[in-house]
Protein backbone atom coordinates (compact mmCIF):
# COMPACT_ATOMS: atom_id res chain seq x y z
CA UNK A 1 0.00 0.00 0.00
CA UNK A 2 1.18 3.53 -0.82
CA UNK A 3 2.05 5.65 2.22
CA UNK A 4 -0.02 8.72 2.99
CA UNK A 5 1.27 11.70 1.02
CA UNK A 6 0.63 14.12 3.87
CA UNK A 7 1.75 12.34 7.03
CA UNK A 8 3.64 9.27 5.77
CA UNK A 9 1.48 6.76 7.64
CA UNK A 10 0.95 3.33 6.08
CA UNK A 11 -2.21 2.76 8.12
CA UNK A 12 -5.43 3.38 6.18
CA UNK A 13 -8.99 2.12 6.11
CA UNK A 14 -10.76 1.14 2.87
CA UNK A 15 -13.44 3.44 1.50
CA UNK A 16 -14.39 2.42 -2.04
CA UNK A 17 -13.13 0.38 -4.98
CA UNK A 18 -13.68 1.37 -8.62
CA UNK A 19 -12.14 0.10 -11.87
CA UNK A 20 -9.67 -1.96 -9.84
CA UNK A 21 -8.42 1.05 -7.84
CA UNK A 22 -8.77 1.26 -4.06
CA UNK A 23 -9.72 4.52 -2.39
CA UNK A 24 -8.61 4.53 1.27
CA UNK A 25 -8.50 7.04 4.12
CA UNK A 26 -5.48 7.60 6.32
CA UNK A 27 -6.25 6.78 9.94
CA UNK A 28 -3.67 9.31 11.14
CA UNK A 29 -4.50 12.49 9.20
CA UNK A 30 -7.78 11.62 7.37
CA UNK A 31 -6.46 12.22 3.84
CA UNK A 32 -8.24 10.02 1.26
CA UNK A 33 -6.15 8.63 -1.59
CA UNK A 34 -5.88 5.80 -4.13
CA UNK A 35 -3.58 3.24 -2.55
CA UNK A 36 -2.71 1.50 -5.85
CA UNK A 37 -2.43 4.41 -8.31
CA UNK A 38 -1.76 4.00 -12.03
CA UNK A 39 1.83 4.32 -13.21
CA UNK A 40 3.17 7.28 -15.18
CA UNK A 41 2.40 5.75 -18.59
CA UNK A 42 -1.18 4.99 -17.57
CA UNK A 43 -1.62 8.55 -16.30
CA UNK A 44 -0.38 9.99 -19.57
CA UNK A 45 -2.90 7.85 -21.43
CA UNK A 46 -5.71 9.08 -19.19
CA UNK A 47 -5.02 12.68 -20.20
CA UNK A 48 -4.61 12.09 -23.90
CA UNK A 49 -7.47 13.62 -25.87
CA UNK A 50 -7.48 10.55 -28.06
CA UNK A 51 -8.33 8.42 -25.04
CA UNK A 52 -10.89 10.73 -23.41
CA UNK A 53 -14.16 11.90 -24.92
CA UNK A 54 -14.34 14.60 -22.26
CA UNK A 55 -10.95 16.10 -23.12
CA UNK A 56 -11.69 15.89 -26.84
CA UNK A 57 -15.01 17.64 -26.32
CA UNK A 58 -13.30 20.55 -24.55
CA UNK A 59 -11.46 21.32 -27.78
CA UNK A 60 -14.79 22.13 -29.48
CA UNK A 61 -15.86 25.63 -28.30
CA UNK A 62 -19.48 24.80 -29.16
CA UNK A 63 -19.65 21.61 -27.12
CA UNK A 64 -21.59 21.20 -23.88
CA UNK A 65 -18.37 20.51 -21.96
CA UNK A 66 -16.66 23.61 -23.35
CA UNK A 67 -19.63 25.84 -22.50
CA UNK A 68 -19.69 24.38 -19.00
CA UNK A 69 -15.98 25.09 -18.57
CA UNK A 70 -16.47 28.70 -19.70
CA UNK A 71 -19.06 29.15 -16.94
CA UNK A 72 -16.73 27.57 -14.39
CA UNK A 73 -13.84 29.77 -15.57
CA UNK A 74 -15.90 32.85 -14.68
CA UNK A 75 -16.42 31.39 -11.20
CA UNK A 76 -12.67 30.77 -10.91
CA UNK A 77 -11.92 34.38 -11.79
CA UNK A 78 -14.48 35.76 -9.35
CA UNK A 79 -12.93 33.82 -6.46
CA UNK A 80 -9.36 34.74 -7.48
CA UNK A 81 -10.18 38.44 -7.59
CA UNK A 82 -11.41 38.34 -4.00
CA UNK A 83 -7.73 38.16 -3.06
CA UNK A 84 -5.64 39.52 -5.94
CA UNK A 85 -6.52 41.63 -8.98
CA UNK A 86 -3.29 41.89 -10.99
CA UNK A 87 0.19 40.50 -11.47
CA UNK A 88 2.00 37.61 -13.14
CA UNK A 89 -0.46 34.71 -13.14
CA UNK A 90 0.31 31.13 -14.18
CA UNK A 91 -2.60 28.71 -14.53
CA UNK A 92 -1.37 25.19 -13.78
CA UNK A 93 -3.46 22.56 -15.53
CA UNK A 94 -4.88 25.23 -17.82
CA UNK A 95 -6.73 22.69 -20.02
CA UNK A 96 -7.90 24.39 -23.22
CA UNK A 97 -7.48 27.90 -21.83
CA UNK A 98 -10.94 29.15 -20.83
CA UNK A 99 -9.77 30.64 -17.52
CA UNK A 100 -6.62 32.12 -19.06
CA UNK A 101 -8.72 34.03 -21.58
CA UNK A 102 -10.81 35.63 -18.84
CA UNK A 103 -7.85 36.34 -16.56
CA UNK A 104 -5.93 37.96 -19.43
CA UNK A 105 -8.93 40.14 -20.28
CA UNK A 106 -9.19 41.10 -16.58
CA UNK A 107 -5.65 42.50 -16.65
CA UNK A 108 -3.44 39.67 -15.39
CA UNK A 109 -0.15 38.91 -17.16
CA UNK A 110 -0.93 35.29 -17.98
CA UNK A 111 0.62 32.03 -19.10
CA UNK A 112 -0.23 28.38 -18.53
CA UNK A 113 1.14 24.92 -17.82
CA UNK A 114 -0.72 21.84 -19.09
CA UNK A 115 0.06 18.13 -18.77
CA UNK A 116 -1.94 17.02 -21.84
CA UNK A 117 -0.12 17.73 -25.10
CA UNK A 118 -3.37 18.12 -27.05
CA UNK A 119 -4.88 20.48 -24.50
CA UNK A 120 -1.68 22.55 -24.28
CA UNK A 121 -1.74 23.01 -28.06
CA UNK A 122 -5.43 23.93 -27.99
CA UNK A 123 -4.88 26.44 -25.16
CA UNK A 124 -2.09 28.15 -27.12
CA UNK A 125 -4.19 28.23 -30.28
CA UNK A 126 -7.22 29.62 -28.45
CA UNK A 127 -5.47 32.22 -26.27
CA UNK A 128 -2.24 33.11 -28.07
CA UNK A 129 -0.53 32.98 -24.67
CA UNK A 130 2.56 31.05 -23.65
CA UNK A 131 1.68 27.49 -22.63
CA UNK A 132 4.30 25.11 -21.28
CA UNK A 133 3.72 21.40 -21.76
CA UNK A 134 4.25 19.38 -18.58
CA UNK A 135 3.89 19.89 -14.84
CA UNK A 136 5.09 22.30 -12.18
CA UNK A 137 8.25 20.23 -11.97
CA UNK A 138 9.01 20.69 -15.69
CA UNK A 139 8.54 24.46 -15.88
CA UNK A 140 11.25 26.87 -17.00
CA UNK A 141 9.79 29.59 -14.74
CA UNK A 142 12.34 31.08 -12.34
CA UNK A 143 11.87 30.70 -8.59
CA UNK A 144 9.99 33.65 -7.11
CA UNK A 145 8.83 34.89 -10.53
CA UNK A 146 5.05 34.50 -10.11
CA UNK A 147 2.50 36.59 -8.24
CA UNK A 148 -0.39 34.14 -8.61
CA UNK A 149 -0.48 30.40 -9.22
CA UNK A 150 -3.88 28.85 -9.91
CA UNK A 151 -4.52 25.11 -9.73
CA UNK A 152 -8.18 24.56 -10.51
CA UNK A 153 -9.21 20.91 -10.16
CA UNK A 154 -5.58 19.84 -10.40
CA UNK A 155 -4.36 18.88 -6.92
CA UNK A 156 -6.53 15.75 -6.78
CA UNK A 157 -4.99 14.47 -10.04
CA UNK A 158 -1.26 14.72 -9.29
CA UNK A 159 0.75 11.77 -7.92
CA UNK A 160 2.48 13.85 -5.20
CA UNK A 161 0.41 16.84 -4.00
CA UNK A 162 2.89 17.74 -1.26
CA UNK A 163 5.73 18.04 -3.79
CA UNK A 164 3.57 20.11 -6.16
CA UNK A 165 2.64 22.52 -3.37
CA UNK A 166 6.29 22.91 -2.38
CA UNK A 167 7.14 23.62 -6.02
CA UNK A 168 4.34 26.19 -6.15
CA UNK A 169 5.68 27.84 -3.00
CA UNK A 170 9.14 28.15 -4.57
CA UNK A 171 7.78 29.68 -7.80
CA UNK A 172 5.77 32.37 -6.02
CA UNK A 173 7.26 35.69 -5.02
CA UNK A 174 7.00 36.63 -1.32
CA UNK A 175 3.40 37.66 -0.70
CA UNK A 176 2.26 35.70 -3.77
CA UNK A 177 -1.05 33.86 -3.96
CA UNK A 178 -1.98 30.21 -4.44
CA UNK A 179 -5.59 29.74 -5.57
CA UNK A 180 -7.03 26.27 -6.10
CA UNK A 181 -10.20 24.24 -6.24
CA UNK A 182 -10.94 20.56 -5.68
CA UNK A 183 -13.86 18.25 -4.87
CA UNK A 184 -14.73 18.04 -1.18
CA UNK A 185 -15.06 14.48 0.10
CA UNK A 186 -16.80 15.78 3.22
CA UNK A 187 -19.48 17.59 1.25
CA UNK A 188 -23.11 16.87 2.05
CA UNK A 189 -23.71 14.77 -1.07
CA UNK A 190 -20.60 12.54 -0.68
CA UNK A 191 -21.41 12.01 3.01
CA UNK A 192 -25.06 11.13 2.52
CA UNK A 193 -24.46 8.92 -0.52
CA UNK A 194 -21.47 7.01 0.89
CA UNK A 195 -23.51 4.46 2.93
CA UNK A 196 -24.92 3.17 -0.39
CA UNK A 197 -21.66 3.36 -2.35
CA UNK A 198 -20.33 -0.13 -1.72
CA UNK A 199 -23.77 -1.72 -1.85
CA UNK A 200 -24.51 -0.19 -5.25
CA UNK A 201 -20.88 -0.32 -6.46
CA UNK A 202 -21.49 3.30 -7.44
CA UNK A 203 -20.24 6.56 -5.91
CA UNK A 204 -19.91 9.27 -8.56
CA UNK A 205 -17.95 11.64 -6.33
CA UNK A 206 -14.43 10.07 -6.07
CA UNK A 207 -13.80 9.04 -9.69
CA UNK A 208 -10.72 6.83 -9.40
CA UNK A 209 -8.32 6.61 -11.15
CA UNK A 210 -8.48 10.20 -12.42
CA UNK A 211 -8.74 11.53 -8.87
CA UNK A 212 -5.78 10.10 -6.98
CA UNK A 213 -6.59 12.11 -3.84
CA UNK A 214 -9.77 13.30 -2.18
CA UNK A 215 -9.54 16.30 0.12
CA UNK A 216 -11.80 17.76 2.77
CA UNK A 217 -11.54 21.41 3.73
CA UNK A 218 -9.48 20.37 6.77
CA UNK A 219 -7.02 18.11 4.93
CA UNK A 220 -6.63 20.58 2.07
CA UNK A 221 -5.82 23.43 4.45
CA UNK A 222 -3.39 21.21 6.34
CA UNK A 223 -1.44 20.06 3.29
CA UNK A 224 -1.28 23.61 1.89
CA UNK A 225 -0.04 24.98 5.20
CA UNK A 226 2.54 22.19 5.48
CA UNK A 227 4.10 23.58 2.27
CA UNK A 228 4.57 26.97 3.95
CA UNK A 229 1.42 28.84 2.90
CA UNK A 230 -1.07 30.67 5.11
CA UNK A 231 -4.71 29.97 4.24
CA UNK A 232 -6.65 33.21 3.65
CA UNK A 233 -10.12 32.00 2.64
CA UNK A 234 -12.32 29.23 1.29
CA UNK A 235 -15.62 28.94 -0.54
CA UNK A 236 -17.98 25.99 -0.85
CA UNK A 237 -19.77 25.29 -4.15
CA UNK A 238 -21.45 22.33 -5.79
CA UNK A 239 -20.23 20.45 -8.83
CA UNK A 240 -22.51 20.90 -11.82
CA UNK A 241 -25.43 18.50 -11.30
CA UNK A 242 -25.42 17.28 -14.89
CA UNK A 243 -21.72 16.41 -14.54
CA UNK A 244 -22.28 14.48 -11.30
CA UNK A 245 -25.55 12.72 -12.07
CA UNK A 246 -25.89 12.88 -15.86
CA UNK A 247 -27.78 15.09 -18.28
CA UNK A 248 -31.61 14.89 -18.15
CA UNK A 249 -31.76 13.12 -21.52
CA UNK A 250 -29.35 10.47 -20.23
CA UNK A 251 -31.21 10.01 -16.96
CA UNK A 252 -34.50 9.58 -18.80
CA UNK A 253 -33.09 6.40 -20.37
CA UNK A 254 -31.72 5.06 -17.07
CA UNK A 255 -34.40 4.67 -14.39
CA UNK A 256 -31.99 3.61 -11.65
CA UNK A 257 -29.69 6.57 -12.28
CA UNK A 258 -32.73 8.84 -12.36
CA UNK A 259 -33.85 7.54 -8.97
CA UNK A 260 -30.34 8.06 -7.58
CA UNK A 261 -30.27 11.63 -8.88
CA UNK A 262 -33.71 12.37 -7.44
CA UNK A 263 -32.53 11.11 -4.05
CA UNK A 264 -29.18 12.91 -3.84
CA UNK A 265 -29.25 15.94 -6.18
CA UNK A 266 -31.08 18.04 -3.55
CA UNK A 267 -28.25 17.32 -1.07
CA UNK A 268 -25.65 18.34 -3.65
CA UNK A 269 -27.50 21.59 -4.28
CA UNK A 270 -28.03 22.31 -0.58
CA UNK A 271 -24.45 21.54 0.47
CA UNK A 272 -22.88 24.98 -0.12
CA UNK A 273 -25.65 26.67 1.85
CA UNK A 274 -24.67 24.73 4.97
CA UNK A 275 -20.89 24.92 4.43
CA UNK A 276 -20.71 21.39 3.00
CA UNK A 277 -20.41 21.85 -0.75
CA UNK A 278 -19.05 18.92 -2.74
CA UNK A 279 -16.55 21.30 -4.38
CA UNK A 280 -14.44 23.94 -2.66
CA UNK A 281 -12.04 26.77 -3.34
CA UNK A 282 -9.08 27.75 -1.21
CA UNK A 283 -6.77 30.77 -1.38
CA UNK A 284 -3.48 30.86 0.47
CA UNK A 285 -0.57 33.28 0.57
CA UNK A 286 3.17 32.86 0.70
CA UNK A 287 4.43 34.94 3.63
CA UNK A 288 6.12 38.19 2.70
CA UNK A 289 9.85 38.49 3.23
CA UNK A 290 10.86 40.11 6.51
Offer a quick outline of the entry:
The chain has 290 residues and is α/β, with parallel strands linked by helices.
User: Helix- and strand-based class?
Assistant: alpha/beta
Number of helices: 11
Query: What would you call the shape?
Result: globular
The CATH first-level class comes to Alpha Beta
Strand order across the largest sheet: 6-5-4-7-8-11-10
Radius of gyration computed on alpha carbons: 18 Å
Strand proportion, as a percent range, falls in 15-25%
How confident is the prediction overall: mean pLDDT?
Answer: 92
Question: Under the CATH scheme, which architecture would be assigned?
Answer: 3-Layer(aba) Sandwich
Summarize the biggest pleated sheet.
7 strands, mixed
Helix/strand order = EEEHHHEHEHEEHEHEHEHHHE
Q: Helix proportion of residues, in percent?
A: 25-40%
How far apart lie the N and C ends? 42 Å
Poorly predicted regions: none
CATH fold call: Rossmann fold
The count of strands amounts to 11
Query: CATH homologous superfamily - what is it?
Result: Vaccinia Virus protein VP39
Amino acid sequence: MTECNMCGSASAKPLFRAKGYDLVRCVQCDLAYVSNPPDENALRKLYSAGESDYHSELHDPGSTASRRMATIAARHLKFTRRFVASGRLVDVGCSSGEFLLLAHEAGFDCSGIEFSRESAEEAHRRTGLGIERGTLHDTTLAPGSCDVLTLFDVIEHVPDPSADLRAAFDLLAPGGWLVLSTPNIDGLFPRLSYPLANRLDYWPHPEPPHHLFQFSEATLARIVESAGFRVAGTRHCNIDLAYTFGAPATLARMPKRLAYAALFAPAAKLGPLVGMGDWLYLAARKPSAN
